[in-house]
Amino acid sequence: MYVIVNAAASADGKLSSRRREQIAISGADDFARVDRLRAESDAVAVGVGTVLADDPHLTVKDDELRAQRREDSRPANPARVVVDSSGRTPTDAAILDDAATTYLCLSEAAPVDRRMELAEEAELVTAGDDRVDLLRAFAALQEQGIEQLMVEGGGELIFSLFEAGLVDELRVFVGPTIIGGRDAPTLADGEGFVAKFPALDLEAVDRLDDGVVLTWRVDDR
Ligand SMILES: NC(=O)C1=CN([C@@H]2O[C@H](COP(=O)(O)OP(=O)(O)OC[C@H]3O[C@@H](n4cnc5c(N)ncnc54)[C@H](OP(=O)(O)O)[C@@H]3O)[C@@H](O)[C@H]2O)C=CC1
Ligand SMILES: Nc1nc(O)c(N)c(N[C@@H]2O[C@H](COP(=O)(O)O)[C@@H](O)[C@H]2O)n1
């Protein structure tokens, strides 16, 4: 499986404010680039923190891109993936609607009643005891035919993916604003690295809207 992390950060590296509300950092051209990347991918993933904060839909917005996917004998939208150890995804979340298949990656810690409710709305993948074991979960997704996985965030999930050595490529739109705040989410949160920092190779720098898209390949992948 090829994993591309894509996110939008302010010039000071924040994905959102300390209120953890969704902020449009991208401009129209960057949102169009993100839509094309979604359309190219077999699935789009987020952590449950993003589901709870943003209630994202994660569908392809452009009609022509969806039509092209259908012509290519693919579903109109890529599958959606939520990494959610204890099954906190609300059953009325937009990501569970019928616009696409949704995989909920749970751990053994998810209560049985929650599993039963969520199984009505999504395909359940269980991996890990207390927290989702990302290596095992992604292996299970690959078995379902997901070859290119786009990850949109947030910072907790992105850090864990780097920690697990699962990221092949990182694309970041750096937008023309400062958000600030020591508690605001950044591109990679979690515990942070203190040694063996993942190394990146810069592949492209493209001006877009009033910002820049940085494309990095992860070394040793
Ligand atoms: N600008 C941008 O491009 C984007 C911005 N955002 C912003 O990011 C914020 C949300 O990010 P954040 O709070 O970091 O949440 P995440 O979306 O990264 O979700 C994190 C949660 O995922 C669950 N999880 C399960 N297994 C793992 C694992 N192995 N590793 C990591 N997490 C795991 C955990 O909850 P549990 O323990 O319950 O399983 C964890 O708290 C929001 O403010 C949102 O607006 C989000 C996406 C893109
Ligand atoms: N690429 C990008 N730029 C921004 O400025 C953003 N705020 C985000 N956020 C991500 O997009 C999700 C919303 O998707 P839908 O419009 O609901 O399909 C949101 O949850 C973040 O993952 N992305």
From TrEMBL:
Species the sequence originates in: Natrinema versiforme JCM 10478
The name this protein goes by in its record: 2,5-diamino-6-(ribosylamino)-4(3H)-pyrimidinone 5'-phosphate reductase
InterPro entries in UniProt: DHFR-like_dom_sf, Rib_reduct_arc, RibD_C, RibDG_C, Riboflavin_Biosynth_HTPR
Top-level taxonomic group: Archaea
GO biological process: riboflavin biosynthetic process
Family stated for the protein in its record: Belongs to the HTP reductase family.
Pathway(s) of this molecule: Cofactor biosynthesis; riboflavin biosynthesis
Assembly and binders: Homodimer.
